[in-house]
């Protein structure tokens, strides 16, 4: 079982938040990597009748989520996602590879944006009955094995267009110099129209939205480190001006960078 040691991104107030919970991430076996990006397990125990609300800026992936009373498929999320933790609890999650569930979806990915569905809608009538008992399993290794066994039957080869969608999302995520759809077109050697068509059919969110989201990941990283002022961040990330940065930040995260720091 291979742990995922890649940098955690998109977590608001990451340093202050991580004391409230224990997060573990694991890579899938190679044969499942076209279907699953990672397994993620979170446990918490918060005493004295307190609570912690965790806020994240998620990637455009579908997630299988097992909680105490339900199992859901969460669609791509277009805004900050909040989750309240109190007393003792946990969440067991599977993050699917971008575009990997196309053969299971009855509607275009855009339909599922910001929606949570009963897992039976996608994985069959018995899915919740089979998966809900995993909530009490205390071994990460056993959880990964059981989830892998359940999902293997849904693993099919990606089409060329699905691989193109995955490549475009990876380019945006991993190349910090991509600030516009024009830059993405130049890096990928595909036209803007082709890119927009691929995103519409296989991702459900626009390339412009995803570029802005990962740009904000960089802003959050710099704010977390606290070693740059706002003008430094504007220049580093090549925003047009400070007002542009503040507008992007508030539209996606809900508050201004100044309010975030406070």
Automatic annotation (TrEMBL):
Keyword vocabulary terms for this entry: DNA-binding, Transcription, Transcription regulation
Upper taxonomic lineage: Bacteria, Pseudomonadati, Pseudomonadota, Gammaproteobacteria, Alteromonadales
Name listed for the protein in its UniProt record: HTH araC/xylS-type domain-containing protein
Signal peptide: none
Domain HTH araC/xylS-type: 166-262
Transcription regulation keyword on record: yes
UniProt cross-references to PROSITE patterns, sorted A to Z: HTH_ARAC_FAMILY_2
UniProt xrefs under Pfam families: DUF6597 (PF20240), HTH_18 (PF12833)
Record-level Gene Ontology MF annotations: DNA-binding transcription factor activity; sequence-specific DNA binding
Segments crossing the lipid bilayer: none
Record bears the keyword Transcription: yes
Organism: Pseudoalteromonas luteoviolacea CPMOR-1
PANTHER family membership: HTH-TYPE TRANSCRIPTIONAL ACTIVATOR RHAS, HTH-TYPE TRANSCRIPTIONAL ACTIVATOR RHAS-RELATED
């Amino acid at each position: 079982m291979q742990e995922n040691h890649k940098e955690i991104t998109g977590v608001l107030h990451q340093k202050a938040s991580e004391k409230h919970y224990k997060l573990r991430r694991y890579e899938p076996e190679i044969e499942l990597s076209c279907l699953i990006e990672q397994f993620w397990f979170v446990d918490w125990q918060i005493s004295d009748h307190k609570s912690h609300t965790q806020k994240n800026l998620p990637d455009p992936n579908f997630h299988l989520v097992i909680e105490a009373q339900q199992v859901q498929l969460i669609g791509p999320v277009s805004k900050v996602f909040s989750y309240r933790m109190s007393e003792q609890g946990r969440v067991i999650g599977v993050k699917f590879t971008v575009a990997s569930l196309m053969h299971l979806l009855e509607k275009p990915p855009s339909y599922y944006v910001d929606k949570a569905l009963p897992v039976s809608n996608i994985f069959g009538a018995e899915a919740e009955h089979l998966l809900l008992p995993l909530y009490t399993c205390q071994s990460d290794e056993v959880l990964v094995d059981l989830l892998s066994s359940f999902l293997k039957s849904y693993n099919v080869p990606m089409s060329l267009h699905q691989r193109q969608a995955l490549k475009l999302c990876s380019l945006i995520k991993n190349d910090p110099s991509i600030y516009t759809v024009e830059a993405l077109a130049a890096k990928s050697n595909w036209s803007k129209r082709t890119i927009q068509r691929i995103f519409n059919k296989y991702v459900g969110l626009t390339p412009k939205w995803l570029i802005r989201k990962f740009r904000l990941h960089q802003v959050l990283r710099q704010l977390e480190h606290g070693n740059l002022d706002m003008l430094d961040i504007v220049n580093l990330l090549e925003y047009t001006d400070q007002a542009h940065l503040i507008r992007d930040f508030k539209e996606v995260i809900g508050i201004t960078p100044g309010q975030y720091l406070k």
